[in-house]
Structures are given as C-alpha cells and as structure tokens.
Design brief:
membrane; alpha+beta; rod-shaped; transmembrane helix; 5 strands; 51% helix
Length: 238
Amino acid sequence: MLLKKTNIHEKLISQRKKSGSYTDPVAFANLLLAEDENKRTFIRKKLGSKSEITENTFDFDLLETERIFHLSQIKAICIDYRLRFLDSHLYKLPFPEEAVSKIKNLEKAHQTQLSGFKMIAPSKVFQLKKYNDPLLFAPLGNDYYYLIHKWGNDLHPLRKWLVLPFRNLGTLILFFLMLSAFCCLLVPETFLGKSDTATMRFISFLFIFKYWCAIGIYYAVSRGKNFNVNIWNSDFGG
C-alpha cells in the first residue's frame, strides 16, 4: 500500500484545531476590514488637518520619477493657469476614496506615515464646493513634491489664454492696450470728424484705454482680485 503524501497546510490546520486557537474566518475578515477602515479614517484626518511637515521619508527606489516635481515647476503652472498650491486642509470637499487608498498603499510600500499634503487646484476648490482637476502632493523635501493622485475634471483647453491678462501687471496693461486699439478701430470716421482723423483716433484710443483701466481697477478692488503671480500659493482671496 502506498503511503499518502503529507500536506503541511493540512497538518498546520489540524495543529491549530488541537491547540484551541482556531480563528473564525468571518471574524478575522471583519477584524481586517475594521483595521483598514481605521487606517483610512486616520488618513482622512491627516488630509483635513493643518501640518507643518515639509518632508516625508520615502524609499526613492520605489518612487515614479514622472511624479516628482520641483516647486519652481509647480509655481510656473499655477501662474500660467491661475491655480493655487495650498495645504490639503483648505480643500472643501471630501477626498475621493481612491486618493485615500493611494496614500495607504504608499505608506505601506515605503513603511512610513505621510503628512504635509499639498494640492494644486483652482481657487474655487478652496472656497466653494466645486472642483476642477485637483492634484494631491506629498512633500519630498528640498522643494520637491510627489504627485499622489489626480481627480475631477480637466481644465478648459483655453484656460491658459483666458487668464493670461491676470498673470501680472504687465500682461494686464498689454491686454488693455490691445483691447483699446481694437475698440478704437471700431469707431467710425464720421464720429471723429472730417479733419485730422489720425489725431482724433489717437485721442479716442487714450480715452478708451483709460476707460478699460478704470473698469479693471474697480473690478479688482471691489472683488478683491490679485495677479496670478501673487496668489498661486496664497490662501487669501484673489
């Protein structure tokens, strides 16, 4: 008679039963789920809390290089598209579960606890319950940040050009000059008189330019607006 081969897995199960330490698989699964939810709750709390941490401990061999960005690169994008780069606790909406999962997986893979989270998003994300294209980062140190997750809707393809006048004072003045020149060309010659129309058109241009500047100043003061270069990392209005 051939002897039956020994299955070590079965022997282990048998030994566990003999020792009286048998674990109910349902109870064990519930325990794992509870531990997982506790971790997720702790991560959500960190995302919604202010932190002074400016550096996290990562295993750089496990990082994806295409997700690493320097502060100067983040600043340039924020200025071009009129976005903010602010602490995650200023975000007004619940964070998606996928973002929480990615943080949990990163912490497990790198054997660390992440904090000091930052976000790139339009101003309204931090003021109103609307969102477009938020990006979540964790600081690496030395002004480098690691992109954890992106969600929401993509920005309008023309956003960069629509917000270009608000980049800085120079771009706003240039925009008003071009707008005034265009408006001046629309003024009919009959309105300028029959003699020396070039001089009258130039005078009209100056009046139109002053008009647009006045509107711009009034709008900026009344709405508390500021230039992209000044607000990209500011949590104040603008």
